[in-house]
C-alpha cells in the first residue's frame, strides 16, 4: 500500500515537472519577440537623446507626446536623429515662432517639425553622399523629405541647409544622433505659422478648446465627427438655460432668441466692473478695455451664445511682466488668450 502511494507521488511529481517545463518554454517563446515590439532598453538611442546635451530637443519631444511613437519606430527599424544644438532653439529661434509651436492648439505642427528631424534608417557619417554623387533624398518619419549632401567647397556635410557640426555624436545599436547647427523647418509648418501670423487661420473661426490628451494612453483624444452645416441643434436652446440658482454649478445660459435675448456687451461690462470693485484686478481690466479690443470681442461671443471662463491674474501677477513682454506686437492679446477658456468651468469642475 505504501508502495502505491509512493508510486503515485512519483507520477504526480513527474507530471508537475513536465507541466512546469512546458509552461516555461511557452513563456520563453512569448517573451522573446518582445524585443522588437517597441520596448526599449537603456542602450537605446532614445535614452541617449533624453540624457544628452540636446536638452531643448528632448523637452520638445516630451511636450509633443512623441515618446511612444518613437519607441514604436525604434522597435521596427533603426533611426537617425538630426539634433539641433541648444542655442539654435534658445536664442537663434524667432520668439514668435517658438511661441506658436508651444501653443496647445498647434501640437500637430510641433509634432511635424520634430518628426522632420528623424529618418527611419541608419545613416552614419561614413555613408554620407560625396561631392560627385550630389544630394541624396531621404524620407522622414513625418512623411516629408530631407536631402543629404556634401559641400564641394569646404567638404562640410549638410542636411538641407543645416550643417552637421557633430557627426555620429551618439551611436547606439538601434540608431544614431548627428548634431546640427540649426533647426530644420518643413514647409507645411512654415505655412501654418505664416497663416497664423497673418490671422488668416483664426479670422472668422469659432473658438474651440485645445486638443485633449487621454491621461491613460498619453495620446490625443479623437474629436467627434463634425456636424453638417445647417443641421438643427441636438437639443433645444432652452435646454441650456440654468434650471435654478440652487444648483451649483449650474449650466451656463444659452444664446439669445425668442426665449430671451442675452446682452453679451452688458454682461462683459458687468464683469469688468466686478473686477474693479472687487480689487486687485485693475491691470487685467485695463488690458481688456484700453490695451486691446478683447472686451468687445468677448461681448460679441457671449451675445452669440458662447460661454467664457476667464482665469484673471491679479495685479501682483501682472506686475511680474516686463516691459519687453508687453511691448511686443500682439503680446497683450496673447496673454489674455491664454487665460480664457471657451467653456463653462467652476472650481468644482476644474
TrEMBL record:
State if Signal is listed as a keyword: yes
Q: Where is the signal peptide?
A: 1-26
Q: Which Gene3D superfamilies match?
A: FAS1 domain (2.30.180.10)
**Which keywords does this Swiss-Prot/TrEMBL entry list?**
Glycoprotein, Proteoglycan, Signal
> FAS1 domain: from which residue to which, for each copy?
41-184, 268-350
Q: So which domain of life are we looking at?
A: Eukaryota
Q: Does the keyword Glycoprotein apply?
A: yes
Where in this chain does the entry annotate a coiled-coil region?
Answer: none
Task: Provide ranges: composition bias, Pro residues.
Answer: 225-235
Stretch list, region Disordered: 207-263
> Sorted alphabetically, which InterPro entries does this protein's record hold?
FAS1_dom_sf, FAS1_domain, FLA15/16/17/18
Q: Which family does it belong to?
A: Belongs to the fasciclin-like AGP family.
Q: What is this protein called?
A: Fasciclin-like arabinogalactan protein 17
The record lists the organism as Noccaea caerulescens (Alpine penny-cress)
Amino acid at each position: 500500500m505504501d508502495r502505491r502511494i509512493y508510486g503515485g507521488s512519483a507520477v504526480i511529481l513527474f507530471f508537475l515537472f513536465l507541466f512546469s517545463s512546458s509552461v516555461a518554454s511557452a513563456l520563453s517563446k512569448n517573451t522573446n519577440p518582445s524585443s522588437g515590439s517597441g520596448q526599449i532598453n537603456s542602450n537605446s538611442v532614445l535614452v541617449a537623446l533624453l540624457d544628452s546635451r540636446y536638452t531643448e530637443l528632448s523637452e520638445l519631444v516630451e511636450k509633443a507626446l512623441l515618446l511612444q511613437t518613437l519607441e514604436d519606430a525604434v522597435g521596427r527599424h533603426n533611426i537617425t536623429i538630426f539634433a539641433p544644438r541648444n542655442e539654435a532653439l534658445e536664442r537663434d529661434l524667432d520668439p514668435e515662432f517658438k511661441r506658436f509651436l508651444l501653443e496647445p492648439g498647434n501640437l500637430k505642427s510641433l509634432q511635424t517639425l520634430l518628426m522632420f528631424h528623424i529618418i527611419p534608417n541608419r545613416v552614419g557619417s561614413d555613408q554620407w553622399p560625396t561631392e560627385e554623387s550630389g544630394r541624396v533624398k531621404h524620407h522622414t518619419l513625418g512623411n516629408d523629405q530631407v536631402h543629404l549632401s556634401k559641400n564641394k567647397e569646404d567638404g562640410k556635410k549638410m542636411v538641407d541647409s543645416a550643417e552637421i557640426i557633430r557627426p555620429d555624436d551618439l551611436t547606439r545599436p538601434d540608431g544614431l544622433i548627428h548634431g546640427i547647427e540649426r533647426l530644420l523647418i518643413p514647409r507645411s509648418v512654415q505655412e501654418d505659422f505664416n497663416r497664423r501670423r497673418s490671422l488668416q487661420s483664426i479670422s472668422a473661426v469659432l473658438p474651440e478648446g485645445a486638443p485633449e490628451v487621454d491621461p491613460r494612453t498619453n495620446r490625443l483624444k479623437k474629436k467627434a465627427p463634425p456636424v453638417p452645416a445647417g443641421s438643427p441643434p441636438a437639443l433645444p436652446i432652452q435646454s441650456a438655460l440654468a434650471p435654478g440658482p440652487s444648483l451649483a454649478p449650474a449650466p451656463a445660459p444659452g444664446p439669445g432668441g425668442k426665449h430671451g435675448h442675452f446682452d453679451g456687451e452688458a454682461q462683459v461690462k458687468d464683469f469688468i466692473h466686478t473686477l474693479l470693485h472687487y480689487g486687485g484686478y485693475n491691470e487685467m481690466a485695463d488690458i481688456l478695455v484700453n490695451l486691446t479690443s478683447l472686451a468687445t470681442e468677448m461681448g460679441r461671443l457671449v451675445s452669440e451664445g458662447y460661454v467664457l471662463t476667464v482665469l484673471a491674474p491679479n495685479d501682483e501677477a501682472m506686475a511680474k511682466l516686463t516691459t519687453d513682454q508687453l511691448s511686443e506686437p500682439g503680446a497683450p492679446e496673447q496673454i489674455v488668450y491664454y487665460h480664457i477658456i471657451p467653456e463653462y468651468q467652476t472650481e468644482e469642475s476644474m
